[in-house]
C-alpha cells in the first residue's frame, strides 16, 4: 500500500485525555480515533492489526474443531428473562425498545441466543459435542470507560460456546480450549498467566482467566513464588492455620470509644493491635441480610461471601438498611447481643481470636474481651477474606506474591446454568431428555490488540511482533523528488509485493525527519531506507524491535528478509 493512498493521520503531540501508553500510541500512530467515551473507530492500520489478531484466533479455534457462526447483536429481552439475567446482569446491559415497545438488549454476551438456537436444532446426543464461535462487537454500558481499547463500551470479542452430553466431554473441550488460548497468546508474544477466576455475571464454575502481566492492569493476580499456581485475587483460596492464643478468657466488658469508628481508630484508642479486633460488615445476599466477620487486619472478599451464602447477588448494605435492620450505625457494629435475628458468617481467622474487640451496636461503645462462641454465636465459618502477600500458597508450594494483569481471555465450565432454565434439552442414549452441558470461552479481540500495544513499544513508538504488525516492511525513500530514489523505492515495492510481503511505501513528499518519526511511531518490523546510496543499489535496513541497522545491496535483500521473516 502506498502511504499517499491510505489514511494514517499521525500526531506529534500526545492527546491529553489518553492516560496509558498503548492508548496514546494507538492515537498518535493513527490506528484508532475516539468517537465518544469508550467508543472508537479503527483506521486502516488499526483494522489490519485487528484482523491479524482475528486470524490467529480463527486458526487456533479451527484447530480444536470450533466452527464459526455469526449471531445477532440485537437480542430480545424474553431470552434474557428466561435465565433471569435481564434483571441480574446490572446496568452494564444496554436495553432499548423498538417501535412496538418490545424490549431488546444490545449483545453484551450471547449465552441466551446460542442456547435458544441449539435447543431448536439439536435434539439427539448423536449430534454432540458441538463447539461454535463468533467474532463480533459487544456492547456494555461501562460506568467509567478508560485506558482506550482496554475498557470500552463497544468492543470486538471472540465468544465460543460448546454443547455436550457428558461432563467428560466438556472436560475434554475445556482442556482443548485451555491449550488453544495458550497457543494464541504465545503466538502473539504476550507475557501472560492462566489464573483461577470468578465467573461473575456469566455464571457456572470452574473457570480460568488469561491475564497479560502489566503495571496498568486493573486486576490483581496472586501467584506462588515457587509453583505455577496463579489466581485472580478474588478467587485465591486462603489456606492459613491460625494459632489460637493460650491467653485465659476474660469477662466481656463494654467500654466507651467516643468518635472511634474505624478499626485503626479503635485499635489505637484501646491500645490493641488490629489483629485483636473483629471487623463486622453487613451484606445483602439476594433478599436476605447477613453479617460477615473478619479479623481487623483482613479485608472481606465479597466474591467469597457470594459463594458462602449461595446468593446470586451480594452487595454491601446501605447505612440506612443497617440502621433499620440492627438499630445502630456502621461504625459501632458487632455480633454480640444482636437486636434482630440475622445469620452470621465468619472468616476462619476469627475462630482464633481470644479476648477480642468488637462493636457494641451502640454509638460510641465497643466490647473488649469478646471471644467467639463464648460471647456470640457464629452460624458458618468459611474462607471469606482476600489473600495477602506473604500468605502460604494454596497449593502448599511457596508463598503468595502479587502482580497486576489485563484480562484478555476467560474460559468457563457453565454446566447447565443456561440450558436448565431455558429448557434446552437433548435425548441421551437411553432416550431421556437431558439439559445440555455447556462451556463458554471468550477473548477480547480489541483488548488483545491494546495489550500487545502495551507490551510492544519503546520511547519512539510501537515495536509490533511480526504476526500482527499491520504491514511487514516499511519502504522509506528519503526524497521522492529524486528520480533514482523514487524509482528504486517503487521497484522494491513491486518486487517485495510479488514475493507476498506486506509492504507500506512512504511515497509522501515530506521531510525525512517526519518520515523517520512516523516510521518509528507506526513500528513495522523492518524499515528499508532508500537514500543517497540509491544510485549504487545500496539500501539501509533497520530492524525496528532491536534497532539494528544494515547496509545491503539490492540483490542481497530478499535472502536477508527471508531469513528474518522465516519465509
From TrEMBL:
Biological processes, Gene Ontology terms: prolyl-tRNA aminoacylation
Keywords (A to Z) from UniProt: Aminoacyl-tRNA synthetase, ATP-binding, Cytoplasm, Ligase, Nucleotide-binding, Protein biosynthesis
InterPro entries on file: aa-tRNA-synt_IIb, aa-tRNA-synth_II, aa-tRNA-synth_II/BPL/LPL, Anticodon-bd, Anticodon-bd_dom_sf, Pro-tRNA-ligase_IIa, Pro-tRNA-synth_IIa_bac-type, Pro-tRNA-Synthase_IIa_type1
Enzyme Commission (EC) number: 6.1.1.15
Aminoacyl-transfer RNA synthetases class-II family profile domain: residues covered: 38-465
GO CC, any one term: cytosol
GO MF terms held by the record: aminoacyl-tRNA deacylase activity; ATP binding; catalytic activity, acting on a protein; proline-tRNA ligase activity; transferase activity
Location in or out of the cell: Cytoplasm
Highest rank taxon of the organism: Bacteria
Pfam family, one: HGTP_anticodon
Catalytic activities: tRNA(Pro) + L-proline + ATP = L-prolyl-tRNA(Pro) + AMP + diphosphate
Family annotation (HAMAP family): Pro_tRNA_synth_type1 (MF_01569)
Function comment: Catalyzes the attachment of proline to tRNA(Pro) in a two-step reaction: proline is first activated by ATP to form Pro-AMP and then transferred to the acceptor end of tRNA(Pro). As ProRS can inadvertently accommodate and process non-cognate amino acids such as alanine and cysteine, to avoid such errors it has two additional distinct editing activities against alanine. One activity is designated as 'pretransfer' editing and involves the tRNA(Pro)-independent hydrolysis of activated Ala-AMP.
Quaternary state and interactors: Homodimer.
Domain notes: Consists of three domains: the N-terminal catalytic domain, the editing domain and the C-terminal anticodon-binding domain.
Family to which this protein belongs: Belongs to the class-II aminoacyl-tRNA synthetase family. ProS type 1 subfamily.
Protein name: Proline--tRNA ligase
Organism from which the protein derives: Planococcus koreensis
Classification lineage: Bacteria, Bacillati, Bacillota, Bacilli, Bacillales
Amino acid at each position: 500500500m502506498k502511504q499517499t493512498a491510505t489514511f494514517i493521520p499521525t500526531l506529534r503531540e500526545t492527546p491529553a485525555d489518553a492516560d496509558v501508553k498503548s492508548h496514546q500510541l494507538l492515537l498518535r500512530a493513527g490506528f484508532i480515533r475516539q468517537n465518544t467515551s469508550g467508543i472508537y473507530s479503527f483506521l486502516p492500520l488499526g483494522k489490519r492489526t485487528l484482523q491479524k489478531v482475528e486470524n490467529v484466533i480463527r486458526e487456533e479455534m479451527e484447530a480444536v474443531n470450533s466452527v464459526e457462526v455469526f449471531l445477532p447483536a440485537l437480542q430480545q429481552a424474553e431470552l434474557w428473562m428466561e435465565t433471569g439475567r435481564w434483571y441480574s446482569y446490572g446496568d452494564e446491559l444496554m436495553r432499548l425498545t423498538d417501535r412496538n415497545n418490545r424490549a431488546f438488549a444490545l449483545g453484551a454476551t450471547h449465552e441466551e441466543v446460542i442456547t435458544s438456537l441449539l435447543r431448536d436444532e439439536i435434539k439427539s446426543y448423536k449430534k454432540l459435542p458441538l463447539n461454535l464461535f463468533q467474532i463480533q462487537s459487544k456492547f456494555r454500558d461501562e460506568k467509567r470507560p478508560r485506558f482506550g481499547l482496554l475498557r470500552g463500551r463497544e468492543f470486538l470479542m471472540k465468544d465460543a460456546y460448546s454443547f455436550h452430553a457428558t461432563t467428560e466431554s466438556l472436560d475434554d473441550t475445556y482442556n482443548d480450549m485451555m491449550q488453544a488460548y495458550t497457543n494464541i497468546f504465545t503466538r502473539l508474544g504476550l507475557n501472560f498467566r492462566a489464573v483461577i477466576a470468578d465467573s461473575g455475571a456469566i455464571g457456572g464454575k470452574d473457570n480460568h482467566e488469561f491475564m497479560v502481566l502489566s503495571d496498568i492492569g486493573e486486576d490483581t493476580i496472586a501467584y506462588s513464588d515457587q509453583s505455577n499456581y496463579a489466581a485472580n485475587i478474588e478467587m485465591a483460596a486462603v489456606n492459613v492455620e491460625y494459632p489460637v492464643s493460650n491467653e485465659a478468657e476474660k469477662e466481656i466488658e463494654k467500654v466507651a470509644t467516643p468518635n472511634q469508628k474505624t478499626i485503626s481508630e479503635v485499635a489505637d484508642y484501646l491500645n490493641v493491635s488490629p489483629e485483636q479486633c473483629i471487623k463486622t460488615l453487613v451484606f445483602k445476599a439476594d433478599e436476605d441480610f447477613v453479617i460477615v466477620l473478619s479479623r481487623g487486619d483482613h479485608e472481606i472478599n465479597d466474591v467469597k461471601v457470594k459463594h458462602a451464602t449461595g446468593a446470586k447477588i451480594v452487595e454491601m448494605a446501605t447505612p440506612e438498611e443497617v440502621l433499620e435492620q440492627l438499630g445502630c450505625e456502621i461504625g459501632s457494629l458487632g455480633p454480640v447481643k444482636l437486636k434482630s435475628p440475622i445469620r452470621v458468617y465468619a472468616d476462619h481467622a476469627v475462630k482464633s481470636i481470644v479476648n477480642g474487640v468488637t462493636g457494641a451496636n451502640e454509638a460510641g461503645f465497643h466490647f473488649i474481651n469478646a471471644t467467639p462462641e463464648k460471647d456470640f454465636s457464629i452460624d458458618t465459618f468459611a474462607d471469606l477474606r482476600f489473600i495477602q502477600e506473604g500468605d502460604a500458597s494454596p497449593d502448599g508450594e511457596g508463598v503468595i506474591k502479587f502482580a497486576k494483569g489485563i484480562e484478555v481471555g476467560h474460559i468457563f465450565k457453565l454446566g447447565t446454568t443456561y440450558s436448565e432454565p431455558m429448557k434446552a434439552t437433548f435425548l441421551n442414549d437411553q432416550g431421556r431428555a437431558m439439559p445440555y452441558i455447556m462451556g463458554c470461552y471468550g477473548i477480547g479481540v480489541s483488548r488483545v490488540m491494546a495489550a500487545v500495544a502495551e507490551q510492544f513499544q519503546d520511547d519512539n513508538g510501537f515495536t509490533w511482533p511480526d504476526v500482527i504488525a499491520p504491514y511487514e516492511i516499511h519502504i522509506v525513500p528519503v526524497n521522492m523528488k529524486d528520480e533514482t530514489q523514487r524509482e528504486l523505492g517503487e521497484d522494491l515495492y513491486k518486487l517485495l509485493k510479488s514475493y507476498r510481503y506486506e509492504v507500506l511505501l512512504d511515497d509522501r513528499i515530506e521531510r525525512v525527519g517526519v518520515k523517520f518519526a512516523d516510521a518509528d511511531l507506526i513500528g513495522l518490523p523492518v524499515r528499508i531506507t532508500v537514500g543517497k546510496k540509491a544510485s549504487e543499489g545500496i539500501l539501509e535496513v533497520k530492524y525496528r524491535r532491536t534497532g539494528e541497522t544494515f547496509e545491503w545491496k539490492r540483490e542481497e535483500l530478499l535472502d536477508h528478509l527471508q531469513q528474518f521473516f522465516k519465509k
